[in-house]
């Protein structure tokens, strides 16, 4: 009387006992493989970010499998390019400022040296003040040079 129902229940139990463990094993293996692949990609991205933090802007991230990791890798490479461009711009700006500040100092240096050496006739009071100005000029020139070296080495 319950034959067909009993057959359905036995078949369902067989499916549950056999195919669910097989499906579970297949899904675990697939998860492991995908996880390993993504882990390698994430390590590449992590190394690229570490290089950026150490001012190494030419980062190279290998081919990424997933779309999300491709987008992240592209953004990191673009960031490296932008950081390199900004650093180059900053160095050029510092050179320009140093040049702009050094040019008047050099002119003042030449005029003061010529006056102190007697090329331009000056009275004693003015000569005394110029010698003091000359000492201050050397001090400020040295400060400017130290500032320039500091900015160039820290950029």
* Quaternary form: single chain
Counting DSSP E segments of at least 2 residues, the number of strands comes to: 0
- Average predicted confidence as pLDDT: 82
Task: Give the structural class.
Answer: mainly alpha
Report the β-strand fraction as a percent range.
under 5%
Radius of gyration: 37 Å
Order of helices and strands: HHH
Which outline best applies?
A: rod-shaped
Largest sheet: none
Low-confidence stretches: none
Report the helical percentage.
Answer: over 70%
Overview of this structure, please?
The protein is mainly α. 85% of the residues lie in helices and 0% in strands. The chain has helices at residues 3-53, 67-116, 124-154. Helix 1 runs parallel beside helix 2 and helix 2 (67-116) packs antiparallel against helix 3 (124-154). The longest helix is centred in the first third of the chain and has 51 residues, at 3-53. It is rod-shaped, with a radius of gyration of 37 Å. It starts with a helix and ends with a helix. The mean pLDDT is 82.
Comma- or semicolon-separated keywords:
rod-shaped, 85% helix, 155 residues
List the helices and strands and how they pair.
Blueprint: H1 3-53, H2 67-116, H3 124-154
How would you summarize what this structure contains?
The protein is 85% helix and 0% strand. The protein has 155 residues and is mostly helical.
């Amino acid at each position: 009387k319950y034959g067909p129902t009993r057959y359905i229940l036995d078949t369902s139990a067989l499916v549950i006992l056999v195919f669910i463990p097989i499906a579970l094993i297949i899904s675990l293996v697939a998860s492991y493989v995908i996880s390993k692949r993504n882990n390698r990609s994430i390590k590449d991205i992590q190394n690229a970010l570490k290089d950026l933090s150490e001012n190494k802007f030419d980062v190279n991230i290998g081919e990424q499998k997933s779309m999300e990791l491709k987008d992240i890798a592209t953004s990191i490479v673009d960031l490296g390019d932008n950081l390199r461009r900004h650093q180059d711009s900053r160095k050029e700006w510092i050179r320009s400022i140093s040049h702009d500040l050094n040019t008047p100092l050099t002119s003042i240096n030449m005029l003061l040296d010529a006056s102190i050496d007697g090329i331009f006739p000056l009275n004693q009071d003015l000569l005394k003040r110029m010698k003091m100005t000359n000492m201050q000029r050397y001090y400020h020139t040295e400060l400017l040079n130290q500032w320039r070296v500091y900015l160039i080495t820290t950029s």
